[in-house]
Specification:
Length: about 290
Amino acid sequence: MSHTAHIRSHRKPRRSASKIAMRAGVAGGVLGTLAVTGASASSASAAEPVTQTLELPTLTADLAAQVAQSADATQQAAANYQLQAERDAAAAKAAKQAKADLAEAKKKAEAEAEAEKQKAAEAARKAAAERASRAAARTTLTASVSAASSSGAGAGASASVSTGGSTATGSVAAVISFVKAQVGKAYVSGATGPSAYDCSGLVQTAFKQVGVSLPRVSQDQSTAGTQVSLSNLQPGDILYWGGAGSAYHVAVYVGDGMFVGAQNPSTGVVERPLSYDPPSGAVRVL
């Protein structure tokens, strides 16, 4: 036996034809699969659309200014809305206050109208009472004069005064004698004698001597009797200056175109002709 008969060969054992064929088939299948996959990939790549990348604009200084301006505009609009709301609220409040003021003014006007109505009614009652009082005074005067004439007594019954063209007697003479006796005395506002008078105080006191009660002030004395024309004056008539019911001065006509009155603080009680200060009108109570 040869010595080399038991030495193993270093060659690899030959593979069987069947194994080789099987491996070749597997490799071919793999290569085929890869080929199909590659073709599919290529086909897919060819069919897929190209995606375009868009770049966002960069926030520049102009764009930032526009954004800030828009924010300011929004804030201003909000402020305007708030201001308008405040104005609307103020207008509503003012309208409500005006309505309340109108109601108050209407109420006040109604109260004043009622007060004026009551005042007018009171004035009418007072005027009626004064007329009744004057009528009663004239009645009393007539009765007094008649009694004095019949008895031959009294201050006016025995008095007589010459008035130029005629002689005043009775109560008229007494009034004229009294006012002439006061000439030269002082004028003092509000005085009724015996040492000083104002114009209506002298007239009131003179007629009081014969029992005739006259109102205290010139305005009332100018309506105390019957209105007479200045062209038809008689001694004892009361002269007045100003309107009837609103006279500011009075005196006594003493006849012969003369009157006696308490004129002012400078002259006191004086006797003057009618031409010195022509009167506005006259009333007769005797």
